Amino acid sequence: MIAILLLLFGLVLIPAVDAWGRAGSGGSFSGGSSYSGGGFSGGGYSSYSGGRHGDGAALAALINFLFRHPTIGVPTVVIGALLFFWYMTKASEHQQRRYIHRAFDKLDDDHINACLAALQQSDPSFDMQKFKQRAENAFRKIQDAWCEQDLTPIHAFVSDGVYERFSLQIEEQHEHGYRNVVEDVRILSISPIEIVASRNDQNAFEVISLRVSARAKDYRVDRATGKMIPGSKNNESFTEVWTFLRRRGAKTQPDKAGLIEGSCPNCGQSIRINQWDKCGSCGSLLRSGEHDWVLSEITQSAVWKPSSGSTLNSATRYWISHDPGFNTHHLEDRASVIFTRKVTADRHGDMRPLIKVSHDMFSDTHRGTYEARERAFYTDCGVGSVDVIGVTTDEHFDRALIDVRWSGRRNQQKGESVNKSSNPSTLRTLMVLGRKHGVQTKVEKSVSSLQCPGCGAPESDAASNSCEFCHMVLNDGASDWVLFDWLPYSSNEARDLRKRANEGIETVVSSIPLDRRYDENDQPIAMQPSAVIVSQVVGNISGSDLDKAKINGRSLREFAKIDDVDLIAWVVQVAAADGKLDPKEQKLLKEVAKMHGVPLNRVQGMLTDAAKGQLESPDPDHHGSGVQWLTRMIDMALIDGHLDRREQKVIAATGKRIGLSDYDVARLLAKRKSELYRQAQAELKERKKELARQKIRNGYQAEG
Predict the structure, then answer these.
(1) Looking at the domain assignment, is residue 447 inside a domain?
(2) pTM of the predicted model as reported, rounded to 2 decimal places
(3) Is 205 in contact with 247 (CB distance < 8 Å)?
(4) What is the per-residue pLDDT across 302-335, written as a single tens digit (0 to 9) for each?
(5) Which of 13, 88, 167, 407 is most buried, judging by how many CB atoms fall within 10 Å of its CB?
(6) Residue 294 near residue 171, CB atoms below 8 Å
(7) Same structural domain for residues 440 and 496?
(8) By residue range, what is the domain housing residue 95?
């Protein structure tokens, strides 16, 4: 009916002679069968022409009828006009959304290509296609090792954080008498989403993060009988981000196999890795990243954040002022190891796994919780992400704040009875790691967090706080970071620590001018920075409230890295606050979460925890923060290209719960759509000009 009214309104508005003229010329010029079959004046043409005159007569009669009966004609025209403008508005909005999605995708691709060019400038032999093939090889090797519950084949090319995490999960499988089987693995796509190249001497590592999308059959089998455990089979797609790092200055050697292929990248011999992680032939430290890429992190795509924004905190200030070798890769790898030891200790009710990696202050405070008859712990733990968010110092200790996003099934133990949750909880923990003030980072040990910093021997699980080989005390913070505290991220104590870490932060942005900018006549007009270094110094800025800390005049909250799981957890928390989350709204929320890559069981766990008041989620502390989060949700949906009616309903409901009217939400949505559209247009236009200038410059260089 709408289509008919639109057609009628269009025919009424368009002069009849113009409409017939365009149709006639189009039909006679492009009507191939009339021209080629039986001559230009054949019967086919006469029949078509007669049909046109018949349509014209009918249209004239319709127009005449509408004008002679205005009580029918006027409402028809008005309704048609409204429907026409509604249709055009929707078409325009759809076009804008498609443009924004495609434009930002192109800009991301351009950025990745520019970063790749920077990497190839220092390492001309590097080939991204071959690197992706190696990553696929690593992916398949890791799946095989996981299924066989034998990590020996992958030990040489994964960091200690990754290795320890897998070891924990396999140990837990052994305890429960099963193993995972992964079959029919199909890699759907592998693409780089971040490349950090060493364009200056301040970067310790080069980093490549790949988004890996795959599909596989996954089920559990009984270790004793080999039979599949009923109800354990899954067949689903998943997306992860795999991060590889390599020491600055390392070069690709195309004629040599590397760690992933099972060879020493230094001497080329087959790897015979010893307990000190050295090559048995040449003695080089294999997992240092000195000669080849090492897998340092596997992050769930829904919580992955680019590392480029991580410099906007006090960790950079600490790097510049206190420890030139400091790097987040070492700290995050160390935190992953300690996290694994902590959840293992919780599961067993035994402090021993933590003895070597936790300070005596922590051990003395928490030992009693393991001896209690009633306690809570988590199993089936999975880490989503580990991020350094700040460092504080005093005259005795330096403290690093680590944001850990993870999930697990909550177990409540009372005596010998254990009650296990059916759905995983979404958790967020602030780990506080500390070491003595003045201790320096050893870059070559950045991905080997399980080795003794004194002699290089591997750590054992013996109930001693010292190395079994050289007897160095390992848990006093005199050589490396150890666990000082473990706090719920949203607790007041954790909030105070985060504020304290960012007190007095002022960012100074400096750049290295490497490329000139040219005008339309190819004349140099300014120096265009192709590398930007963000450094931080102490300024006279109040740190009593995080909102008062500024970066170039903007609140630190504007630089907060928000991911899909953050957003969904926040929406669930906001929705659960008024207790009005009905089944239909829960279903809608699960559908939107799936669009953002958040698994169904994770969302169900969020809903369950929120109802009990146990959900660890972001908590904007004032109206402006809530609006900012809602704006970020709109932006992410528009840029990702999946803003549909379901997501708009969730956005509208969330807006209402934080005090916005339907009109306010609609205006915010329209505003962000318009701003992103203009931004995409401007950036693409500037990018096109820059490519044209680069083409001209390349032509001049070729002629010269």
Answers:
(1) yes
(2) 0.71
(3) yes
(4) 778 776 444 446 787 787 778 878 888 888 889 9
(5) 407
(6) no
(7) yes
(8) 69-122
